[in-house]
Amino acid sequence: xxxxxxxxxxxxxxxxxxxxxxxxxxxxxxxxxxxxxxxxxxxxxxxxxxxxxxxxxxxxxxxxxxxxxxxxxxxxxxxxxxxxxxxxxxxxxxxxxxxxxxxxxxxxxxxxxxxxxxxxxxxxxxxxxxxxxxxxxxxxxxxxxxxxxxxxxxxxxxxxxxxxxxxxxx
Length: 170
Prior knowledge:
By secondary structure, this protein is mostly helical. The chain has a single domain, classed as dinb family like domain (Four Helix Bundle (Hemerythrin (Met), subunit A), Up-down Bundle). Helices cover about 55% and strands about 10% of the residues. The protein contains seven helices and three strands, in the order αααβααββαα. The protein has helices at about 5-20, 40-50, 55-60, 80-100, 105, 125-150, 165-170, and strands at about 65, 110-115, 120-125. Strands 1-2-3 form a three-stranded mixed beta sheet. Helix 2 runs parallel beside helix 4 (about 80-100). The chain is globular, with a radius of gyration of 17 Å.
């Protein structure tokens, strides 16, 4: 069985969980942040929505630089749930297609992530996919869950029922 076929069920499950959490992001709270060193809710939720498409960067290019030298790219901040879900879905579809089309041989080829032209990561695409796409998404999704919890928003379960799910069933 091709490696991509083994990875797609996990990809789909993580994207389903991510979408469920993004559906909980309240409109009108994009500037809220729990601490001065934290991202705003809008920035974090936008980042999570963008990360859904990160696998496309890993499998579609030999290197990727989200902020190339000389560019004045500023982080995107969306202010509505509808826009977050649209960005998420577009990225999810592109990333899933890229993953599904990746050959076993391509998983072992080198990939580099740069920032401002400086290499931040170089390694095999499979490792980049796991670390830069999936693990990064799960990490920030967990942060988003904490932000939402602090705002009093009920949190859906990611790998089983959440405390809010269990409270509803009592």
